[in-house]
From TrEMBL:
PANTHER family: HTH-TYPE TRANSCRIPTIONAL REGULATORY PROTEIN GABR. InterPro entries: Aminotransferase_I/II_large (IPR004839), HTH_trans_reg/aminotransferase (IPR051446), PyrdxlP-dep_Trfase (IPR015424), PyrdxlP-dep_Trfase_major (IPR015421), PyrdxlP-dep_Trfase_small (IPR015422), Tscrpt_reg_HTH_GntR (IPR000524), WH-like_DNA-bd_sf (IPR036388), WH_DNA-bd_sf (IPR036390). Coiled coil: none annotated. Pfam families: Aminotran_1_2, GntR. Keywords: Aminotransferase, DNA-binding, Pyridoxal phosphate, Transcription, Transcription regulation, Transferase. This is PLP-dependent aminotransferase family protein. GO terms for molecular function: transaminase activity. Residues 14-82 form the HTH gntR-type domain. In the C-terminal section; belongs to the class-I pyridoxal-phosphate-dependent aminotransferase family.
């Protein structure tokens, strides 16, 4: 009975047609109604739900206009997902009813690409399922695909230089555990998860200031000298949260400092493909750096596939580490990644266009206000606002009371500074960004 699928669909005070349409949407998203399911006839549906046929017609018409249903002549209505919902960058939870959560700048899955990739991966999984599934360096096919992408961008790479991990955080945790640095050069501001990983490792952090204009080169030299024999963890491509892009001269300087002071540079490249310039061209990588990448910002965080690219000797050493297997994704996920990677450039074109449009929309909505200043980043996922006369924690707290969750600058600080800053991601749809700006202005003015 359809009534079982929509149990409790009536909402006090809500028009019946709107409540019914909303219940069908929720049932589709929860999986109680599957894409392709056929709905009962309007007459039968009205009888089962105890409402007029006019109510059902109005509800189904609304769902049809929004793309939740498709109706064929003589074949009734079938469930589908609206195209813009299945392909947009922002997760559905970002713009939930009554609240907006912009603390994490992460994508939803490109539904069509991922579901088709899963189907294809299962279709050719026979040999994989006949093997042990034990952790290792990664599926040979996946390592080769990742190596080919690096080589195509000008960094000649062999598959044996790639170690597949369950995301970028797993890659970082494995490297830090293996290298066990006494001191680590970090960026200020830096990504909060990265800073937390380093704090738990017990390493002493040596901050280098980064602004939207770039890295403090004077401080870089002093920090590398202080961290001699240790590690430097940098995000040279569209740094999170500033969006800064390290220029070639500074990259060469970093490489020279690393050699001079015996520092291992780990370059986090999770944002490298979020290049929003009109004609994206990958920047040259930092010489001799160990790089970390993942599919979390370009494809989906739920596809836990990342990698380390470094000397083959380092990859062999990491594989001998007992904790290495804990950071390896399941082989079926790796097989899905093998299906997705050849489609990545097409997906990037779509996602860059969407993010570019949302970035420009948010910048326009925030411009001309004396409450803050910001620079338009060339890539990345957020605007880095400097507030005038009030702290980021104060604005974030007031905004949260109104239903908008944001992270203040102190969350990105390795030493408790950056109190005057606030990160505002532009990963949400423009309608959601407009609501966020309204909340932000009220929180600041209050």
């Amino acid at each position: 009975m359809f009534t079982d699928v929509l149990a409790g669909w009536r909402r006090p005070g809500a028009p019946l047609a709107g409540a019914l349409a909303g219940a069908v949407r929720e049932a589709v998203l929860d999986g109680r109604l599957r894409v392709g399911d056929r709905l009962p006839s309007e007459r039968r549906l009205a009888a089962e739900l105890g409402v007029s046929r006019g109510t059902v017609v109005a509800a189904l018409s609304s769902l049809r206009d929004e793309g939740w249903l498709v109706t064929g002549h003589g074949s009734g209505s079938r469930v589908r997902l609206p195209r813009d919902l299945g392909e947009r960058y922002a997760p559905l939870s970002v713009d939930g009813r009554g609240s907006l959560d912009l603390r994490r700048a992460v994508p939803a899955a490109p539904r069509a690409i991922v579901t088709e990739a899963v189907t294809r991966a299962l279709g050719r999984s026979a040999r994989l399922l006949l093997e042990s599934g034990e952790p290792g360096a990664g599926l040979p096919e996946l390592r080769e695909l990742i190596a080919l992408r690096h080589t195509a961008e000008g960094l000649a790479t062999r598959p044996e230089q790639i170690l597949v991990t369950s995301g970028a955080r797993a890659a970082l945790a494995l490297l830090v555990a293996h290298l066990a640095p006494r001191r680590t050069v970090v960026e200020s501001p830096g990504f909060f998860d990265t800073l937390a990983t380093l704090r738990r490792s017990g390493t002493r952090t040596v901050p280098v200031r980064v602004t939207t204009r770039g890295w403090d080169t004077g401080r870089l030299a002093a920090a590398f000298r202080e961290a001699a024999g240790g590690v430097a963890l940098l995000v040279p491509d569209f740094q999170n949260p500033t969006g800064a892009l390290m220029d070639p001269r500074v990259r060469r300087e970093v490489a020279e400092l690393a050699v001079r002071h015996g520092v291992t540079v780990i370059a986090d490249e999770t944002m490298r493909d979020i290049d929003l310039r009109d004609h994206p061209v990958p920047e040259p990588r930092i010489g001799r750096a160990v790089t970390i990448g993942s599919m979390s910002k370009t494809v989906w965080g739920g596809l836990r596939v990342g990698w380390i690219r470094g000397p083959a000797a380092l990859v062999r050493e990491l594989l001998l580490d007992p904790v290495s297997g804990l950071h390896t994704p399941p082989p079926l996920e790796q097989l899905v990644a093998c299906e997705v990677l050849p489609l990545l450039d097409r997906l990037l074109d779509q996602r860059r266009a969407e993010l570019r449009r949302q970035r420009d929309h948010l910048a326009s909505a925030l411009s001309g206000d004396d409450g803050w200043t910001f620079s338009l980043p060339q890539g990345g996922l957020a605007l880095w606002l400097r507030l005038n006369g009030v702290t980021g924690e104060t604005v974030a707290r007031r905004a949260a009371e109104a239903g908008l969750s944001l992270l203040p600058g102190t969350a990105f600080s390795p030493d408790g500074t950056l109190a005057d800053w606030l990160r505002v991601p532009y990963t949400a749809p423009v309608e959601t960004l407009d609501r966020a700006v309204e909340h932000l202005r009220r929180a600041y003015r209050s």
